[in-house]
Design brief:
alpha+beta, FAD/NAD(P)-binding domain, D-Amino Acid Oxidase, Chain A, domain 2, Helicase, Ruva Protein, domain 3, 3 domains, 10-stranded mixed sheet, 8-stranded mixed sheet, 14 helices, FAD/NAD-bd_sf
Length: about 500
């Protein structure tokens, strides 16, 4: 990066934070004709946005807390996002086993009626009552009936990356591993000081967007030296991944005595993902990890419902994140609003505005971005109209179906197993040809690191998707981290170091 050139650049909008809300706002803004800069202190989606339950859902349980506006918006967005990115988002049926002592049947039926009709629903099936046959049901024999409804599953980190790709292709400048050290107002602009491994540099921006997620309030107080209008409450959500505990592609939504719910979701064909928890978190958001109490809680809920009994030794992997929720002074972490709050700060009309994002959820990121643009319209009256609702995300262009793409890949690339072809089709959609190029055999794809990861894919991820480390590639780009052994990881590490060195030598030459 030519840092002296960056210093001369004045952007319309500088976005701090490369999670789903940050990239969503950057994408919307660049498509309306504004110039956009986005920085992320780590990798894209490396915190809250990749630690979700990996669902695009209306939030059935939010109805109990009377969050009707949020649920209506989220229900409508399921259909919008399903159309925008059918390769990374897919419909999923959810089964709620009925526990009469927790919630009466009439209450659940009423909630599902609202769920079916509050938002526009065209692609997804409605809800219905189901009965379980003891011999074939994975649930304990005393659970005889339940309710079934629709939501969607998503690859959360790829949703972030695809939005970032779209923003960059439209002209946005997106940098990772770059921290905003400070920002101050001067002459109607923001002077933003940034730091990466090459050193420090400055950019200018007319508007600063604080989408720092768990760090949103801290950024205002420490880096901007300003007062935050809202407090933030960090709510830890943890998940565990275990070997598949039941067959089929449906998820289960399990009620618990404390009125919270826990999902059991089919994950990557071989596993079941169980979560999430809700607990107040007050430590460093960079260091969030599952607690023993959470492990026991999730095991207990699963074992109360399923015939397959789990022990702690069955857990293959865990992941945790903190949801930065707007402090509404609720006593119950599960009842704190999941809705978003946007705060525009500008003491007089000559002062550069600051827009801060509090709260939000994966499903409503696009509507949050549109709302952010509404807040900023008075500063950019020439901006274009909303455009993201019908715009396909990268990889969805000319995609007839993921299944057909899998067949096409296997026909064109000899020796390609169906598991890898399916992973590629779901992760990249029609953009898969950007790294396969003219290869007609897996032997033309370069070094094989195992489990269907070839050098050509790694090179593409480094060149085009901001990947730097093995974790970036295995955890957030390909989801192969559950398959790779320590030796596999070491082999990939060596390759990435050599690749980095080759790139540096090219730059010097």
């Amino acid at each position: 990066m030519n840092q002296s050139l960056e210093q001369q650049t004045c952007y319309d909008i500088a976005v701090i934070g490369g999670g789903i809300n940050g990239v969503g706002i950057a994408t919307d803004a660049i498509g309306r004709g504004l110039s956009v800069f986005l920085c992320e202190k780590d990798d894209l989606a490396s915190h809250t946005s990749s630690a979700s339950s990996k669902l695009i859902h209306g939030g059935l349980r939010y109805l109990e807390h009377k969050e009707f506006r949020l649920v209506r918006e989220a229900l409508a967005e399921r259909e919008v996002l399903l159309s925008k990115a059918p390769h990374i988002i897919r419909p999923m049926r959810f089964i709620m086993p009925h526990q009469p002592h927790l919630r009466p049947a009439w209450l659940i039926r009423t909630g599902l009626f609202f769920y079916d009709h509050l938002g526009k629903r065209e692609k997804l099936e409605g809800s219905n009552l189901v009965y379980f046959v003891a011999e074939t049901s994975p649930l304990k024999e005393e659970i005889t009936r339940g309710f079934e409804y629709s939501d969607c599953a998503v690859d959360d980190s790829r949703l972030v990356i695809l939005n970032a790709l779209q923003a960059r292709e439209k002209g946005a400048k997106i940098v990772t591993q770059t921290r905003c050290v400070s920002a101050k107002r001067a002459n109607g602009l923001w002077l933003v000081e940034l730091e990466n491994e090459q050193g420090r540099y400055q950019i200018q921006a007319k508007v600063l967007v604080n989408a720092a997620g768990p760090w949103v309030a801290q950024f205002i107080k420490q880096d901007l030296q300003l007062k935050s209008q809202y407090g933030i409450r960090l709510i830890q959500g943890s998940h565990m991944i275990v070997p598949k505990i039941y067959e089929g592609d449906k998820a289960f939504i399990m009620q618990n005595d404390d009125q919270r719910i826990v999902f059991a979701i089919p994950y990557l064909d071989k596993y079941t993902m169980i979560g999430t928890t809700d607990r107040e978190y007050t430590a460093d958001p960079n260091q969030v990890e599952i607690t023993q109490t959470e492990i026991e809680y999730l095991l207990d809920v699963s074992n109360d419902h399923f015939k397959k009994q789990l022990q702690q030794s069955d857990i293959i992997q865990t992941f945790s994140g903190v949801r930065p929720l707007c402090d509404d002074e609720s006593d119950n972490p599960a009842a704190i609003t999941r809705d978003y709050t946007l705060v525009l700060s500008q003491e007089d009309e000559n002062e550069a505005p600051l827009l801060s994002v509090f709260g939000g959820k994966l499903t409503t990121y696009r509507k949050l971005a549109e709302s952010a643009m509404d807040h900023l319209k008075k500063f950019f009256p020439e901006m274009n109209k909303p455009w993201t609702e019908k715009a396909l995300l990268p990889g969805a262009e000319n995609l007839i179906s993921v299944d057909e793409l899998v067949i096409e890949l296997q026909n064109k690339v000899k020796g390609l197993d169906v598991e890898t072809a399916s992973r590629w089709a779901h992760a990249y959609g029609t953009r898969i040809w950007n790294f396969i190029h003219h290869a007609t055999s897996v032997h033309e794809l370069g070094q094989h690191f195992g489990h269907g990861l070839y050098a050509q894919e790694v090179d593409y991820l480094v060149d085009s998707e901001w990947a730097i480390t093995t974790t970036d590639i295995l955890k957030r780009r390909t989801k192969l981290y559950l398959e790779f052994t320590q030796d596999d990881v070491q082999s990939l590490d060596v390759y990435l170091v050599e690749l980095h060195q080759r790139r540096l030598q090219k730059e010097v030459a």
